[in-house]
Each structure stands twice: as C-alpha cells, then as structure tokens.
Specification:
The structure is a single chain. By secondary structure, the chain is an alpha/beta fold. It has a single domain (about 10-210), classed as TIM Barrel, CATH 3.20.20.70. It has eight helices and eight strands, in the order E-H-E-H-E-E-H-E-H-E-H-E-H-E-H-H. The protein has helices at about 20-30, 45-60, 90-100, 110-120, 145-160, 175-180, 190-195, 200-210, and strands at about 10, 35, 65-70, 80-85, 105-110, 125-130, 165-170, 185-190. An eight-stranded parallel beta barrel has the order 1-2-3-4-5-6-7-8, surrounded by six helices. Strand 1, helix 1 (about 20-30) and strand 2 form a beta-alpha-beta unit. Helix 1 packs parallel to helix 2 (about 45-60). The longest helix has 18 residues, at about 45-60. The two termini are about 25 Å apart. Its cofactor is Mg(2+). InterPro entries: Aldolase_TIM, ThiamineP_synth_sf, ThiamineP_synth_TenI, TMP_synthase. Its EC number is 2.5.1.3. Pathway: Cofactor biosynthesis; thiamine diphosphate biosynthesis; thiamine phosphate from 4-amino-2-methyl-5-diphosphomethylpyrimidine and 4-methyl-5-(2-phosphoethyl)-thiazole: step 1/1.
Length: about 210
C-alpha cells in the first residue's frame, strides 16, 4: 500500500540563532504537514531530548515527522519515518530494520540512482537534487536545474518508474511552478525559509504555490 507523501517537505537545519524546536513550531503554526528533522550538530542523546519535544509539537498539529539518517532513533521517539542521504545505502536492509509501517525516503542525483533505489521496492519517495546551489549541506553532486529534472522525469515515464520525486537543493518560491511543470511530486525546502527575514511568511508563500 502506497504511503502518503506530502508535496511540501520542510527541513530544519542547524542555525545559531534558532533551535530546531523553534523552527518546527514556526513551520507548524504556518501550516506544515511534513517536517524533516535534519541535524548534524548533536549527539544521539541530544537528538533524542530535542526530538521528543519536537514530536510532541508535531503530534499536536497532526504533522508527519521524518528524521534524517538516524534509524536507531525511530523506536525511541514518536517519528513516522526516516530519510537516508547516503546514495549507496542498502535500502532493502534498512526497510527490514525499520519495518513496513515507517516511511522511508532516499536521496538521489541521477536517473541511475533513481532506478537502483526504485528497484529495491523498499522506498516510499526519492529526494532528487540538488536543483541549484545550496550551502545547507555542501556536496559535489552536479546541479540538475530545470532541464535536469525534465530529462529525469521523461525517462522515468518511459521506464514506468512510479515513485514520488521531491526536488531539493537551493529551491525558492520562484522555482515551484516550473518544477511542477517538470512533473516532480513536490519540493523540499530549508534555507529559503529558515534564513529569510520572515520564515513564517516564506513558508506560507511556498505552501500556497503547492496547494
């Protein structure tokens, strides 16, 4: 049974002036129905303390909570799924580890990545990128741009690969309409919201374009 995958994935990030919990509260108050807790600066114990508080907020708002990479925390907090950023991960094994009910997301940069991940039959959605320049998580993967997504979505259609593709990496509100025209299921956004002068307003602008 195919799981629900939101069209708007909001990602928290490590910020000096605003905690992940504060980011989640702002997002939920602005209408978030899907949040990915993406933290690289804490120990597992610190993760768990913050995660439990974040999970309470998400539960109050009916918001899906996904964690980046830390599968071991799924059984320790009220988290609905995990997103794995390692492109070469063994998703079949990860699915066995987390069970059938948790949502499992994967990262990809190329059509070959998508084909391999989809063939596992273990993943619920794929975050494909980067769309553009992003400093949230520096990497050496080629930037896809609109033409990259257009080519990937066309090939997926030919190959009959039916898995939701979430565009990610350097995405702003100005890119949403064009990406939707390429056939992507949705977008994942972080810095365009978190580093804006008015995060709540930035969130709502993107939300309106996707609903």
């Amino acid at each position: 049974m195919q799981k629900y995958v939101s069209r708007f994935h909001y990602l928290t990030q490590d910020l000096q002036h605003k905690s992940h919990l504060e980011q989640v509260i702002t997002a939920c108050e602005s209408g978030a129905n899907w949040i990915q807790y993406r933290c690289f600066s804490k120990t597992e114990e610190q993760h768990l303390d913050e995660l439990n508080r974040i999970a309470e907020v998400c539960d109050d708002w009916g918001t899906t909570l996904i964690i980046t990479d830390h599968t071991s925390l799924l059984s320790k907090a009220d988290i609905q799924g995990v997103h794995i950023e390692d492109l070469s991960a063994d998703f079949t094994s990860i699915r066995k580890e987390i069970g059938p009910d948790k949502t499992l997301g994967a990262s990809a940069n190329t059509l070959d990545d998508i084909k391999r991940i989809a063939a596992s039959g273990a993943v619920d959605y794929i975050g494909c990128g980067p769309f553009g320049v992003t400093l949230t998580k520096p990497n050496d993967y080629p930037i896809l741009g609109l033409e990259g997504y257009k080519a990937i979505m066309a090939e997926m259609d030919i190959l009959r690969i039916a898995i939701p593709i979430i565009a990610v990496g350097g995405i702003t509100a100005a890119n949403i309409d064009a990406l939707a025209d390429m056939g992507v299921h949705g977008v994942a956004v972080s810095a365009a919201i978190n580093k804006s002068d008015n995060p709540a307003s930035a969130f709502k602008e993107i939300y309106r374009k996707l609903h």
